[in-house]
Design goal:
Distance between the termini: 23 Å
Family: Belongs to the DNA glycosylase MPG family.
Keywords: DNA damage, DNA repair, Hydrolase
Low-confidence stretches: 2-10, 14-62
Shape: globular
Number of strands: 10
Radius of gyration: 16 Å
Function: Hydrolysis of the deoxyribose N-glycosidic bond to excise 3-methyladenine, and 7-methylguanine from the damaged DNA polymer formed by alkylation lesions.
Strand content: 15-25%
CATH superfamily: Methylpurine-DNA glycosylase (MPG)
Protein name: DNA-3-methyladenine glycosylase II
Structural class: mainly beta
Mean pLDDT: 76
GO molecular function, one term: DNA binding
Oligomer: single chain
Number of helices: 3
CATH architecture: Roll
Largest sheet: 8 strands, antiparallel
Length: 244
């Protein structure tokens, strides 16, 4: 689990609270201020993990009708291996009050994985990773970015799924580390709602984990919605097909 600069020009979790002040129709385009707390933007095509910080535009074009019928995902949904949970999270909705994002890209981190934060055991920061599946794990990366993960599997396992990218449905989330260990299956606050399964899923190695063992660096544990514009760089390492 290492910091990345994604399609968001920053990250999923760390956004300005001011960005939550107005609402948009499903096809509204709005210009956003620059900066590390800026709202999500599309990649500039530099397939090297960087995103452009200029001319930030956000298009909210995901159908809100799907969200209206979305149910809160139950506790049991999360009690499986992170590698199985990761592709099942694609298409699901993250909601915090009126703020909604649809998950388009994830990475799985498993026990005995040399790229997983849990590899060092239980610490003050990583304690939520060892809790029961269905809780948030939020950590600060490089002192700048709040990174959102969803804990997977049974209590004590030490596994999670990193949310790399999302499509904006309404506005962007504004989280801090105080949300770490929050239960996503309980109504109120930060929730994970059911959503449509993607028709096709891309798969490839994870990003920014060169410190890990070769078998973990090369493991195809990154998943993304095929055809989505909301996928972080590098995109060239993601390949079809993947049967969910």
């Amino acid at each position: 689990m290492k910091c990345f600069v994604s399609v968001f020009g920053g990250n999923v979790a760390s956004m300005t609270s001011a960005a939550k002040s107005s609402t948009h129709s499903r096809r509204t385009v709005r210009r956003i201020k620059k900066g590390p707390a800026a709202l999500p933007v599309a990649s500039d095509g530099n397939d090297d993990g960087r995103s452009s910080a200029s001319g930030l535009l956000v298009q909210c074009n995901t159908s809100l009708d799907l969200l209206a019928a979305a149910a809160l995902l139950p506790w049991g949904f999360y009690q499986i291996d992170a590698l199985d949970l990761a592709p099942r999270l694609l298409g699901k909705f993250l909601r915090r009050d009126e703020v909604v994002l649809q998950i388009t890209e994830v990475e799985a981190y498993r026990p005995n994985d040399s790229a997983c934060h849990g590899r060092f055991g239980i610490t003050v920061r990583t304690a939520p990773v060892f809790g029961p599946g269905g809780h948030a794990y939020v950590y600060l990366c490089y002192g700048l970015h709040m990174m959102l993960n969803i804990v997977a599997d049974k209590e004590g396992v030490g596994a999670a799924v990193l949310i790399r990218s999302c499509a904006p449905v309404g506005q962007a989330l504004g989280l801090s580390t105080s949300w770490s260990n929050h239960a996503l299956y309980i109504a109120g606050g930060l929730e994970l709602l059911d959503g449509p399964e993607p028709e096709n899923i891309l798969v490839g190695p994870r990003v920014g984990i060169d410190y890990a063992l070769p078998e973990h660096v090369n493991a195809p544990w990154r998943f993304a919605v095929a055809g989505s514009r909301w996928i972080s760089a590098p995109k060239s390492t993601l390949k079809p097909p993947y049967s969910s």
